């Protein structure tokens, strides 16, 4: 079944038929460009073996494209006003399951177990931008079996996910994403590809999950506490950031000794450290207590 949605005309038709009112609080910007849709599906490399999780199907535009390419699509949508619309636009697709829920409250690992016997799924979405970070981090930290995540996000957030130390966009999100996955920006997408038009530029980013993280660290949770602590207080030195963090309880001496052992000077800032260095710092600090 060929997709019927994906241009301004048929999107407006569906919206009018149901008197749909856009909800700003849900980050609703629907895709109205078939080239962008083809690009997303192509770069996600969906095959008939794949179970795909779509977050926020909207009126089902990308869902139709995904349903054509995948074995099964599970679409989680929070807005109950969209459910009757999805029943209509997806009525010809038998391999789609729509779940009316807040994706942040869904146990996705359990869903992957039910739908794909715990084998890795692919996540594809035009994300609601207000919750990009909690969605991505939730998928990684809860150890959901995932092969790749291909998502539309705010351009600036896509940049943050793929940069390294020494740039203004480098932060906790860059490090977290790069610990779990290899990021690759697929395309930049201008506001006129959406209805209504977002105020910001967008980009499609593909995150390919590593089977093994690129660095080894004894205490992953400690490493992420160190990362958060150093970027919460960007203008402070690394030593001060770690000393002031409510999440950490190392002494001034322990922290200074660990930074010294890293081979970095006392005035170094967290934003200069690579992922390897954060891993080493976490190992040094976890050893100093035993
Ligand atoms: N996929 C559609 C498209 O590309 O046209 C819609 C994308 S729109 C940017 C984001 C969608 O996510 C909206 O349909 C919105 O209602 C939904 N959404 C927002 N917050 C959500 C949440 N917490 N859980 C699930 N869906 C959510």
Automatic annotation (TrEMBL):
Keywords: Cytoplasm, Methyltransferase, RNA-binding, rRNA processing, S-adenosyl-L-methionine, Transferase. Residues 36-211 form the Ribosomal RNA adenine methylase transferase N-terminal domain. It is found in: Cytoplasm. InterPro entries: KsgA/Erm, rRNA_Ade_diMease-like_C, rRNA_Ade_Mease_Trfase_CS, rRNA_Ade_methylase_Trfase_N, rRNA_adenine_dimethylase, SAM-dependent_MTases_sf. Pfam families: RrnaAD. It comes from the Bacteria. SMART domains: rADc. SUPFAM superfamilies: S-adenosyl-L-methionine-dependent methyltransferases. Its EC number is 2.1.1.182. It catalyses: adenosine(1518)/adenosine(1519) in 16S rRNA + 4 S-adenosyl-L-methionine = N(6)-dimethyladenosine(1518)/N(6)-dimethyladenosine(1519) in 16S rRNA + 4 S-adenosyl-L-homocysteine + 4 H(+). GO terms for cellular component: cytosol. One of its GO terms (molecular function) is RNA binding. S-adenosyl-L-methionine binds at residues 29, 31, 56, 77, 102, 126. CDD domains: AdoMet_MTases. Its main location: cytoplasm. Belongs to the class I-like SAM-binding methyltransferase superfamily. rRNA adenine N(6)-methyltransferase family. RsmA subfamily. PANTHER family: DIMETHYLADENOSINE TRANSFERASE, DIMETHYLADENOSINE TRANSFERASE-RELATED. Specifically dimethylates two adjacent adenosines (A1518 and A1519) in the loop of a conserved hairpin near the 3'-end of 16S rRNA in the 30S particle. May play a critical role in biogenesis of 30S subunits. This is Ribosomal RNA small subunit methyltransferase A. It comes from [Ruminococcus] lactaris ATCC 29176.
